[in-house]
Amino acid sequence: MRPASFSHRPRQLSGLCIAPGAPWHSGLRNERRSGYSPSMAHWVSLVVDGLARTSLDDVTSAMFDLGAAGVAEEGDRGVEPRTRQTWEEGPPEPLSETVRLRAWFESPDADLRAAAEACLPPGVESRWETVPDEDWSTGWRVNFPVFRVGRLVVAPPWEELPGSLILEPGQGFGTGQHATTRLVLERLVSLLDLERDATPRCRVLDVGCGSGILSLAAAHLGADAYGIDNDPFAVEGARAEAARNGLAVPFDTTPLVDVPGRWSIVLANLFADTIVDLADDLIAKTEKHLILGGILADRERRVRDALDPRLGAPDRSQDGEWVCLHYRLPRR
Questions:
Q1: What's the confidence (pLDDT) of residue 136?
Q2: Domain locations in the chain?
Q3: Is 290 helix (H, G, I), strand (E, B) or coil?
Q4: How far apart, in whole angstroms, are the C-alpha atoms of residue 186 and residue 322?
Q5: Order of strands, edge to edge, in the sheet holding 315-319?
Q6: pLDDT grade, residue 91 (50/70/90)?
Q7: What integer pLDDT is reported at residue 137 of this predicted model?
């Protein structure tokens, strides 16, 4: 994932305990799984709602003692706590007093089910759920289908299409389907359609490139692109994807202020507060178009207060809680 200064909204993860040697399975929320075939076992999960947090450790230990393959803490009755954003001040909200506990068992008989239920304190609600059979070694792939934005087609390696941009999902790696990235891609593809016969070729700077999806898409569509990120692991991954696609896109950790020249299109799919902090340098590096993504609707005003007085009102698009702003700079 991107570092704090070049980051999207952080995800809220539930607590998770896995028994040594246990397989990954469906309750672990679409993480990659390997080395397990559904033919090996029939899985069911015990779901417990209204469990006091003070009883969590004891019940978890009891489940493992009974042979649970894994135990996860989730939001009580499936309601996850609100994600705390990096810009929020003051102490964090207190933890809820109750949680949902989910424990997975391999083909439990009636006696084991009764023993597990007997470990629960009074007053909780519990039920057993069947875990659907899937091939967990490849099941995660359904989360990364082929998708299209105008003439751009992005595909994972296992669904490669002629003329598509191929991206391998991985740690810290985006394939462009998140609303923030897609909004920026839509703007980018539209601009490159207008610039496809331009001479010299359109130059695109991707600030906080992460997976490199935006700069790779620009190069795939005929632009000269360059991506920067202060996370060396993201840069390494982006370089690998460029090589996979035969694209000559440089990626490195050069600070924005040190990037030479001005660029036809500058992309910054970042936190709103990071965009504000980088505003001077973003404007200085932009020749024609500054496209900003990763902005939560309730933080849009902060960005616009910093940029509108200098650049005028932007074109705006929104998908759910996410906003994209497209500033067209006057000729200098």
A1: 55
A2: 4-130, 144-328
A3: strand
A4: 14
A5: 251-252, 224-228, 203-207, 263-269, 286-296, 322-328, 315-319
A6: confident
A7: 59
Q: Which CATH number is 144-328 given? A: 3.40.50.150
pTM for the full model? 0.66
What pLDDT, on a 0 to 100 scale, did the predictor assign at position 77?
Answer: 81
- Which residues make Cβ contacts (< 8 Å) with residue 319, sequence separation at least 6? 179, 182, 183
Lowest mean pLDDT among 26-30, 84-88, 208-212, 270-274: 26-30
The two structure tokens encoding residue 207: 């600030």
Q: Which two tokens stand for residue 164?
A: 């598509």
85 pLDDT tier (thresholds 50, 70, 90): low
Q: What is the pLDDT of residues 67-80, one digit of tens each?
A: 998 898 888 887 77
Element (H, E) at 152: strand 152-155
For 4-130, CATH number? Answer: 3.30.70
Let me know: does 265 contact 205? Beta carbons within 8 Å: yes
DSSP secondary-structure letter at 93? P
Q: Are 165 and 184 in contact (CB under 8 A)?
A: no
- Is the peptide bond preceding residue 330 cis, with omega within 30 degrees of 0? no
Structure tokens at 168: 């391998």
Distances (CA, A) of 183 to 187, 214, 287: 7, 11, 21
Is there a common fold for 4-130 and 144-328?
Answer: no
Cβ atoms of residues 14 and 27 within 8 Å: no
